[in-house]
Every structure is written in structure tokens, then in C-alpha cells.
Design goal:
The structure is a single chain. With 482 residues, the protein is of the alpha+beta class. It has 12 helices and 12 strands. The strands form 3 sheets. Strands 2-1-5-4-3 form a 5-stranded antiparallel beta sheet, with helices on both faces. A 5-stranded mixed beta sheet has the order 7-9-10-12-11. InterPro entries: BphY/WalK/GraS-like (IPR050351), HAMP_dom (IPR003660), HATPase_C_sf (IPR036890), HATPase_dom (IPR003594), His_kinase_dom (IPR005467), HisK_dim/P_dom (IPR003661), HisK_dim/P_sf (IPR036097), Sig_transdc_His_kin-like_C (IPR004358).
Length: 482
């Protein structure tokens, strides 16, 4: 069907013609198949009647009867019945319809070939070279040779073998009814398809397709409504995917920005200790006669700055590992009680002016699947932060809640706390409330950022607030199976 013809025919007419061609072709194939089966069945019935006659004649021949005598003493089931006796070499020994036996060999006759191979055979219609007539042949193999009976393929016989035409008319009627029903169905479907095309054009123009019932509540209408709902859902899914893509892109850009900021902050943080060490060592090299007390003081300050560099590099390494390879961090069963006990022991070894009393309230064994080093860094950094900057004397570590899925832990001090404007920024990298004091105390500015990232890697969240009675309070959760 060319483009010009398609343009002249509506969608439902083209669909109807296609359905009409399909249904009539299907019915035609079925009728031909049924006709062939019925004709074969009737041929088998006729062959069975002739084979019965053949069998009786073979039995008579085995008993020594003459073929002509057998035919004369038995009623023929058909008029003008032809009986032929053929030996196994294909020579005709007897034929009741001929005065002179034919000299032609009969081994190549289809019914004879089949009888020699399978014991019996038949041919529905074949022209006889001897009588110059068409016959229905039926042959059977016996001890004395092959008996072949034949019935002239006349008008009565062709009518016997013909299929029942009542079935043909019935199928034609069914096909006509199917065509009429198909016309109305395709017309309704074409109407729905037209409306669906309208929806598609609206979608191409960027219009929003609402998830509304737009078609009648019948079978085709429900299918069309379902298509509209699916399309509307696809629109929403596409919009959600676009938002997710934009969010992922934003997160990736944010990661790049944070990495650049981290690099700049690291360069800035490294400059101060490196410059201090360089200044102390250059002073010592330029003044070899400086007294021993001053030399020792400079060397101690250099060692302090080197320790600050070491802690900074270790914290940067931890932050980088959490940012870029968090999925590769090994996890194992960790008992939080043991980590808290280690932090308390380390606190007891600090100088008196930095030492806090550690009050532990974890009445039960708490175990999570996590990374021991990162989990330890959470408690250690919070304890060191309280020791260095809180100005308090006590550190509180308390188990607030414990379920099979997660645990909630509180870490607080009774110090001075911080101003409210600093709270939203405490977990930012290199953020300091008091920059001068923080550097003097040897802080890297990455401790609380490490805490937040370690909590997130273990599937939890963390928050901070000023306590009503003074000091800072950190509350965080850890998943048992992060």
C-alpha cells in the first residue's frame, strides 16, 4: 500500500482491511485443510470397501478358485468394477475388463508400488492406458500376487469423494459475521487511536498529560486509558530521572568544589607550620652561638610543628579515603564499649590541664558492623575536641537507644559551648570557632568533619547543639549493619 493510498484511507479503514484480509486468509486456509482431510477420509472409506473385496478374492485364489468364477459368483459393491491380478514381476495375469491382457509391465503403477512396499495401496485418480478411462485403484499383496480393484472415476464417484459444502457455507457465514464485527471494532479503535495521537502530539509540544480517564469505560477505552496512565507515569518518571541526574551532577560538581577547597585549605594550613619550622631552623643555623636554652626551645617548637604536620597529613589521608573509597573500607564486628574504654584510658594519660573526667553510661554490650579505626576516630575526635576547646571538666558518653537496627549515642561536655551562629558550620572542613586558639592547641580543623563522614559511612546521622547546662552535645546514630 503506497503513501497516496494510505493518505486517502483513514486509520480504522486500513486496520479493517488488514483484519479482513487476515481473517479471510485464515478461514480459507482452514477450509482447504478441512476439505483435504474430509476427502482423504472418504477415500480411505472407499479404499477399505475395495480392500475387503481384494482380501476375499485373495482368499479364494489361495483355495484354488478361478478369478472369473469368483467375480461371477459374488455381488459387486460397485458398478463397472474392474478386477486385475498382477504377479510380483508386474505382469498382468487377469483383467475382467479386457479381452486381451496388456503387455505393459505394472510395477511402476503407484498403487502397485505401495502394495509391494506396505501390503496395500491406493490411487485416487489415475488414467488407464488399457481402457483409456480414469479409475480409483485399490491394490493388496497376497501369496498369488497382487489383486487390484478399480472403480471408474465418474461423476457419482467424484461426488462421493467431495467435501460437504454445508461446512463451507457455515464458515463463510462465520467469516462474514467476523468481518462485520471487525468493522465496528476497528472503527472504535481507530477513534481511540486518533485521540491517542492527539495526546502524543501534545506530549511532543511539551504539554503535561494528566493521569485522567479520557476514554469510555469499555474494553478498548480501558486499554487507551491504561496507555495514557502509562504515558503520564513515564512523563513523571522521566522528570524524576532528570531531577536525579541534575542532583547527581550537582553532587559531582560539589565534590569537585570541595576537593578544590580542600586542596587550597591544605596548602594554607601547611604554610604556617612549614614556615615556622623553617624560621626556627634558619635562626639556629644563622646563629650557632645561641645559648643552649634558646636552642632547645626552638627545637621543641619545631618538633611541635612537625607533630602538627603529621596530624594534618593523617587527617587529610582519612578524609580522602572516606571521600574516594568509602565503599572499599573494610568492616567487621566492633564492640563500641571497648572503643569508649580506650578513649577513657587515653584521656587519663593527658596532662592535667587537658584531662577530663569521662563519665560512661553504656549499660549493655553494643556491637556494630563497621571499621574499627573510623569508629574509634568518632569518639577520639569528639573527646579531643572537648578536651582542647570546651573549657569543661567532664565528658559524658551515654547510650540513648539501642535497637536491632541501630544505636543512638550522646557525647557531651560541660564546658562553655559555642555561639549559635557557629553550630551549622562545625562539621565543615578547616572551620574554626577561634582560629588563633585552635592552631595554638595544634588542631587541624578536620576533626569534626572526620566525625561526620565516619558516622555517614556507617549509615548514621549526627547533630550538635548547646546544652542547657553549658557545653556542647553531639548526638549520633550508627547502623548495626551499615
Amino acid at each position: 500500500m503506497d503513501t497516496a493510498l494510505k493518505s486517502r484511507l483513514s486509520y480504522h479503514r486500513r486496520l479493517f482491511l488488514l483484519l479482513l484480509a487476515f481473517s479471510w486468509t485464515l478461514v480459507a486456509c482452514f477450509v482447504l485443510f478441512q476439505y483435504g482431510r474430509e476427502k482423504h477420509f472418504k477415500a480411505e472409506q472407499l479404499n477399505a470397501r475395495l480392500q475387503l473385496l481384494n482380501l476375499r478374492m485373495l482368499d479364494a485364489l489361495d483355495e484354488g478358485a478361478d478369478p472369473a468364477t469368483f467375480i461371477a459368483t459374488h455381488d459387486e459393491p460397485f458398478g463397472e468394477l474392474r478386477i486385475t491380478l498382477i504377479d510380483r514381476k508386474g505382469e498382468v495375469l487377469f483383467d475382467n475388463s479386457l479381452d486381451t491382457l496388456p503387455a505393459a509391465n505394472h510395477l511402476n503403477r503407484p498403487e502397485v508400488v505401495e502394495a509391494l512396499a506396505h501390503g496395500s495401496g491406493y490411487t485416487i485418480r489415475r488414467h488407464s492406458e488399457s481402457t483409456h478411462r480414469n479409475y480409483f485403484y485399490s491394490a493388496m499383496l497376497g501369496e498369488r500376487g497382487i489383486v487390484r480393484s478399480a472403480v471408474p472415476y465418474s461423476v457419482p464417484l467424484s461426488e462421493v469423494l467431495a467435501a460437504d459444502r454445508g461446512f463451507l457455507w457455515f464458515m463463510l457465514g462465520v467469516t462474514l459475521l467476523m468481518s462485520i464485527a471487525g468493522y465496528f471494532a476497528t472503527r472504535r479503535l481507530g477513534h481511540n487511536i486518533t485521540r491517542l495521537n492527539d495526546f502524543a502530539e501534545r506530549a511532543e509540544r511539551g504539554e503535561r498529560i494528566d493521569d485522567l480517564e479520557a476514554f469510555p469505560h469499555d474494553e478498548l477505552g480501558e486499554i487507551s486509558n491504561h496507555i495514557i496512565r502509562l504515558y503520564a507515569r513515564l512523563q513523571r518518571t522521566t522528570a524524576d530521572r532528570d531531577r536525579e541526574h541534575a542532583l547527581a551532577l550537582h553532587e559531582e560538581q560539589e565534590k569537585i568544589r570541595i576537593k578544590k577547597q580542600l586542596t587550597n585549605n591544605i596548602n594554607h594550613e601547611l604554610k604556617t607550620p612549614v614556615a615556622a619550622i623553617q624560621g626556627y631552623l634558619e635562626t639556629l643555623l644563622a646563629n650557632p652561638s645561641v645559648d643552649a636554652r634558646k636552642r632547645t626551645e626552638f627545637l621543641e617548637k619545631s618538633v611541635a610543628q612537625i607533630e602538627r604536620l603529621r596530624r594534618l597529613l593523617a587527617d587529610v589521608s582519612t578524609i580522602t579515603r572516606m571521600d574516594e573509597a568509602s565503599q572499599l573500607i573494610q568492616k567487621e564486628p566492633v564492640v563500641l564499649n571497648d572503643l569508649v574504654a580506650e578513649v577513657a584510658d587515653e584521656m587519663a594519660l593527658k596532662p592535667a590541664e587537658q584531662r577530663l573526667r569521662v563519665n560512661i553510661d553504656i549499660p549493655k554490650r553494643v556491637e556494630v558492623i563497621g571499621n574499627p579505626a573510623l569508629l574509634g576516630s568518632i569518639f577520639r575526635n569528639l573527646a579531643d575536641n572537648a578536651s582542647a576547646y570546651s573549657g569543661g571538666r567532664d565528658l559524658y558518653i551515654q547510650l540513648l537507644d539501642d535497637t536491632p537496627e541501630e544505636c543512638t549515642i550522646l557525647v557531651a561536655d560541660n564546658g562553655i559551648g559555642v555561639s549559635d551562629e557557629h553550630l551549622p558550620h562545625l562539621f565543615e572542613r578547616f572551620y574554626r570557632v577561634d582560629k588563633g586558639r585552635s592552631r595554638k592547641m595544634g588542631g587541624t580543623g578536620l576533626g569534626l568533619s572526620i566525625v561526620k563522614n565516619a558516622v555517614m559511612i556507617h549509615g548514621g546521622t549526627i547533630s550538635v547543639r548547646n546544652r542547657d547546662r553549658g557545653g556542647l552535645e553531639f548526638c549520633f546514630t550508627l547502623k548495626k549493619r551499615a
